[in-house]
Amino acid sequence: MGSYTHYLLKALRNPGSLLLFGGLAMISLISGNPLPLIIGAAGKLGWVVSAPMIPAWKRKVDAGEEQKLRLEGENRAKDLLKKLPAEEQQRYQQLVQTAMSIRENYGRYNEVSRGFLENISARLDDMLLRYLRMQFARDNYRRHLATNDASDLEHRMGLLESEMESDSEQIKRIKGKQLQILQQRREKLVKAKADSDLLEEQTTTLEELMKLLKEQALTMKDPEEMNAQLDSLMAEVEHTEQTVTAIEASFDTQFDRELRAAEEEQRRLQAQ
User: Fold this and answer.
1) CA 235 from chain center: how many Å?
2) pTM, to two decimals
3) Residue 206 domain flag
4) 272 residues of the chain, pLDDT tens digit each
5) Fewer CB in a 10 Å sphere around the end CB: N or C, the chain?
6) Which residue from 67, 23, 2, 34 is spatially nearest to 11, judged by alpha carbons?
7) If you ran DSSP here, which 8-state letter would residue 52 be given?
């Protein structure tokens, strides 16, 4: 629910009232009579001031914004889903089917259960979107880890350390910088692997809990118990999202750029 100012601005920009005011202004312009314009301005002002206090108007505004957010969420989900491998898309669709079953089972009971369904429906949608985002992040981690091998970095570090024993001080300084960056990249890979494992465990936990919620809907267990489990799960998912490192599509990090710069400087010095 928004503030008075929020609903006032929505009333001010309402297409219907703007169209009516514009029509009266046009009549005044054509006829040369200012009365229609004055009436339109007074009516517009009265509507804008009073609309934020009308419950029906506030409900209409809230419903429109909820619809907009839902459509935006669906569009984001479609975009993310297209980028996932086929097996991950199927995994997501299975969770969507589970959520649909929960809605259907609660929707066919009494008014109390249907009222509860309305309360959790938006949360189920939010959970599905979070699950999809975690899938997308985990897939990025997997692709990054598949093309960056910690053992390869360790091999390169070993070669550098061996070469530095006979290098000049100038070359040794450059290779020392490379060695430092490779160590940082290895640490990054270890962190990426830990984050990937965390995401896998979190998505699996979410899938299992959704199955449990479906079973509870079938047996009509206590709705409040389901609500509490949703609270717990959402808190855990939010914590995971906050602790997992943000993914860059290219994974072209500062470490990678610094390493290339150090290697180029080494080649320049060796060519002298």
Assistant:
1) 15
2) 0.58
3) no
4) 556 666 666 666 666 666 665 665 677 677 777 776 676 666 666 666 666 666 765 666 665 666 666 666 666 767 777 888 889 889 999 999 988 888 777 666 555 555 566 667 777 887 888 888 888 888 888 888 888 878 888 888 888 888 888 878 888 888 888 888 888 888 888 888 888 888 888 888 888 888 887 877 776 555 566 667 667 766 766 666 665 545 444 444 555 565 566 566 556 655 65
5) C
6) 2
7) G
Q: How many whole angstroms separate alpha carbon 132 and alpha carbon 78?
A: 10
**Residue 72, domain extent:** 1-83
With respect to residue 146, please indicate whether it lies within any of the assigned structural domains. Answer: no
Structure tokens at 76: 């984001």
How far CA 238 is from CA of 94, 136, 244, 268, in Å, comes to: 22, 16, 10, 48
- What total number of domains does the chain contain? 1
Tokens of 91: 């995994």
Query: Is 115 part of a structural domain of the chain?
Result: no
How many whole angstroms from its chain centre is CA 248? 14
Is residue 138 in some structural domain?
no
